[in-house]
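Narrative summary of target 7.
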Amino acid sequence: MARRAHETGAADYLRVEYSDRARGSSEVEGLGGMIQSVFRSWHLSRSKLYRHLLEQLPPLPDDHHRDADARALTELVYPTDPADDTLEDPRFEFSTPRQRFAVVTRLLQRLAQHRPLLVWIDDLQWGEEGLGLLEYLHESSELRRPDLPLLVLATFDKGVVFDPHLASRIDRIGTAAAHLLTLEALSGADHRELLDRLLPLDPDLKERLARRTEGNPLFAHQLLDQWIRADLLIRTSEGTLSVAQDPPVCDNIHQLWVQRLDGLLRISEDREELMEAL
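Modeled conformation, tokenized:
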């Protein structure tokens, strides 16, 4: 939906993504990753990022926060320890968590001046920071400002929300400030019909794929794409597609994407150029 809105010119979109904390964060995650993506600044050092932001931030009518915002956004990308005096300037120390979200909200306001903005927060169950931004937008009535044409779309998997407090916060936001839409897995029959429409799979392979992907159409599509890219599918005498050997099967779609990204990083000669493209 976000990409389609951008393609049709209906809105610009930003993506904030998170992943399982047990795997560690990556350079493309969170609000810092979103800032680097917007300003295409993966290769910039801290001081160069600050100067880049100072030049590239879209101006506001009353822009007295501009320098402070450039410093604060730099801090979101490159968090520092206030006690560490060896790091390069500029520095910025947030006095409260809400100040972080106020800076991000002004960034959204800057970006939404000429076209509505759609912000997609993906895998919210792993992103307490993203949930904090949603709570700030609701509690401060920022989403109702006429000069901020903004739609926030947050996706999360309730099946992996292990922290009861985090789950209650997500439910509270969904009840008070959002339209909550639950997407159930496809039924077995519907899922197998989808697989039939994607490719003429051998019945045994189709059944194995259906059981593994458990009604998740995106997972099924991406797993098939992985097998095609690896040239694992062969045509049988009946005209269907099968595999010569057991193909690699991830436990979930997140693991599949992590493996794909790791593979890209291994073969890329210019890691910074790849991160910028992503």
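The first strand starts at residue 12 and ends at 17.
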